[in-house]
């Protein structure tokens, strides 16, 4: 194995940049804390989370957002498609949740450009999450 293969370093540091901008693991733990608090207080979607295990949800979200932002984590949960398959999630629900994430990022002082980078990486998940067309 080459110590420094061409491009590998660049690709890694670029992916890792978002993870660092989000404050690494402690930043993500704090962000998911605020995010999930927003969700369960959001009258538009709170009912869908009534039976959710909030602590487990936060833990899984931290791992997943860590991976998505290029951090050194592993998401060991089920696929987005499987998890959300029977939850009757609409486009409006998805947008409400995204707003809750944006609000959480505002509260945590995450710069707008960083916010947009994370949202851009999460956006494609709508295909697996929105089940009510
Ligand atoms: C990009 C958007 C989303 C991401 C990244 C995401 C991520 C996750 C993850 C990682 C879990 C697993 C938690 C666990 O293993 O228990 C989960 C569960 C869940 N998600 Fe999502 N989700 C998204 C959108 C949504 C939306 C829009 C809704 C509904 C408004 C929703 C409702 C739920 C519910 C109800 C659970 C089950 C929680 C539980 O039973 O503990 N999700 N989501």
TrEMBL record:
Q: Does the keyword Metal-binding apply?
A: yes
Question: What portion of the full-length protein is represented by this chain?
Answer: 33 to 165 of 165
- Entry annotated with the keyword Ubl conjugation: no
Superkingdom to which the source organism belongs = Bacteria
Q: Where does heme bind?
A: 84
- Entry keywords, A to Z: Heme, Iron, Metal-binding, Signal, Transport
Name of the protein in its database record:
Group 1 truncated hemoglobin
Identify the species of origin: Rhodoferax aquaticus
A GO MF label: heme binding
């Amino acid at each position: 194995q080459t110590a420094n293969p061409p491009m590998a370093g660049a690709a890694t540091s670029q992916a890792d940049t978002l993870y660092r901008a989000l404050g690494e693991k402690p930043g993500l733990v704090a962000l998911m804390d605020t995010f999930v608090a927003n969700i369960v207080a959001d009258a538009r979607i709170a009912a869908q989370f009534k039976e959710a295990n909030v602590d487990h949800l936060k833990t899984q979200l931290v791992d997943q957002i860590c991976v998505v932002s290029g951090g050194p984590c592993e998401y060991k949960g089920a696929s987005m498609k499987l998890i959300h398959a029977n939850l009757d999630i609409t486009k409006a629900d998805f947008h409400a949740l995204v707003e809750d994430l944006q609000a959480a990022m505002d509260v945590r002082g995450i710069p707008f450009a960083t916010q947009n980078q994370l949202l851009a990486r999460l956006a494609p998940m709508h295909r697996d999450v929105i089940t009510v067309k």
